[in-house]
Amino acid sequence: METFGATALTSSHTVCPSLHLLRPLSTREGRSFRVWCSSDQSSMGNQMIISVTGATGFIGRRLVQKLHAENHGVHVLTRSKSKAELIFPVKDFPGIKIAEESEWKNSIQGSTGVVNLAGLPISTRWSSEIKKEIKQSRIRVTSKVAELINSAPDDIRPKVFVSATAVGYYGTSETQVFDEQSPSGNDYLAEVCREWESTALRVNGDVRVALIRIGVVLGKEGGALAKMIPLFKMFAGGPLGSGNQWFSWIHLDDIVDLIYEALRNPSYKGVINGTAPNPVRFAELCVQLGHVMGRPSWLPVPDIALKAVLGEGAAVVLEGQKVLPTQAKKLGFAFKYSYVKDALKAILS
């Protein structure tokens, strides 16, 4: 999982993308026409300006694309302007503001909302130094963003803060079922998530906060699935470890839509699990992936091989948790992909 001053919208949008001429109106000087913009009418009063950390990551890229396509202003908060400019070239993303860290304050002030997706990927070999960096990469950025939101004058302070966290909050289990009311686990990732969330909750009480505990995000361009697809193409795919571990997943489009809805809908606040309604055992995921790809899924990857590559980080894939999106369902969120088979078909079609 990747798993992290006010700017006028006029710079990023055409004045009137679609003109419609209605019946002529008579005037004393002659004839004139009433002109209206269909796209402007439908979105008038609903446009947002959203600042995004982690915008160059797997989820962040798709979120920025959606916000831009929906005619919202976007501020990309980055530590590498050159990287962000390659991912969001001005010809494809006119009007998007790319802000280096020294410019974050001016970008956040005047934003409608802030989305925090920044953090070092956890699917790597964990050393004591890497573990420290995994935690600090999340805490440092979240703390900075919270401070900048709090220091903004009341009239230009963002109204909503959507901050990513992870289902690692719950710890791991092959038997328990977790929802937003479940207690936190006692392992390293649970500790990271607790500190991550408590840091996000430091924002001013007038700001609506939504904490999205994200599961394993499925998409072709990144995350766990992008690493599994080449193995299956080479007829070398199969379960990791026992295959009995729970896999709480969500399609990339659904997690982006959930974040987008949390920005717009005042009912979205507090903890919301970003997982699909039907988690699966890892072995079932592999069977479904093999079926969609027309490949076998018979070759399991033994625990010892994963531990040799990932060390302690192997726990991310060798252990799991069954997490249900109880709050999202209560809020009426409409998942496009509730079943992993449908999600995989859509991704690989």
Please describe what this structure looks like.
It is a single chain. The protein has 349 residues and is of the alpha/beta class. The chain has a single domain (49-348), classed as NAD(P)-binding Rossmann-like Domain (Rossmann fold, 3-Layer(aba) Sandwich). It contains 13 helices and 15 strands. The chain has helices at 38-43, 58-69, 81-87, 104-108, 128-151, 188-200, 223-233, 252-264, 282-293, 303-310, 315-318, 326-330, 340-348, and strands at 19-26, 31-37, 49-53, 73-77, 97-99, 113-116, 160-166, 177-178, 208-214, 216-218, 246-247, 249-251, 270-274, 280-281, 322-323. The chain has a seven-stranded parallel β-sheet with strand order 5-4-3-6-7-9-13, with helices on both faces. Helix 5 links the parallel strand 6 (113-116) and strand 7. The protein is globular. The two termini are 23 Å apart. It holds the Pfam family DUF1731. InterPro entries: DUF1731, Epimerase_deHydtase, NAD(P)-bd_dom_sf, SDR39U1.
Strand % is 15-25%
Question: Rg, please?
Answer: 22 Å
The second-level CATH architecture is 3-Layer(aba) Sandwich
User: Could you list the spans in which at least 5 consecutive residues all have pLDDT below 50?
Assistant: 1-45
Which secondary-structure class do the elements indicate? Answer: alpha/beta
Query: Order of helices and strands, N to C?
Result: EEHEHEHEHEHEEHEEHEEHEEHHHEHH
Query: What is the CA–CA distance across the termini?
Result: 23 Å
- Sheet having the most strands: 7 strands, parallel
Q: Provide the CATH topology.
A: Rossmann fold
**Helix content class:** 25-40%
In order across it, which strands form the biggest sheet? 5-4-3-6-7-9-13
